[in-house]
Request: fold
Amino acid sequence: MSSNRFEGQAAVVTGAGQGIGFEICRQLASEGAGVILNDVDEWLAQQSAEKIRAENGNCHAIGGDAGNLAVIHKIVDTAVRQFGRLDIAIANAGITLFGEFLSYTQDSFEKVLALNLRGSFFLAQQSALQMKNQGNGGSILFMSSVTGHQAHRNLAAYGMTKAALEMLAKNLVIELSPFKVNINCIAPGATLTERTLHEPGYEKTWSEITPMGRPATIRDIAHAALFMVSKQARHITGQSLVIDGGWTATSPSPYKD
Reply:
């Protein structure tokens, strides 16, 4: 990209070793931002940051569980130490644990809540505190999902967390707007990632039931994320942008039965 719309800004992105998070980091760095890339797999985080640096991007890796408050502090503190500021925080880290509601385990439930909700909540909190202290605002973005809008088999706990993030974004408008911090969500639908590309029939099935004729690419989602944290979107707050090729307008099931 030729744009430098994030020149001089610093961003943190969790769960970004691959897939959507990595592409968000890559695009932010390509447009001038200094980026802290986090992933629970420290080796993967380091390798991914190196790929971005090979493209002349300014990117540093932090390994660790983004649902852990100590790791969240480290991510924010590293951004301030490396770049002198924090302008953008994207809570991309999340976990999907499928399971029938009637047999869903407490262990799975707590893992989903710990990362999807606790991690997002406290990344927003710690980032907002830094943005408040800087005095010139910032942008926070949560990663929701179409499963926070439409029921999806075996994703009761996951969908619950995604709907909760959208309500959290709305609620934080009250507390963060006085500090010129806007906070939003994006809600991806079916997306081709390293994981889903290896699921048999995934691309074919979602191409057939998505009105636009294909699932999203990671670039589709990253383009939307960058807009939502850009200066052009500063008057947008408390909102959720669905990126699903029209699937939620019709919502056909991907299951044959």
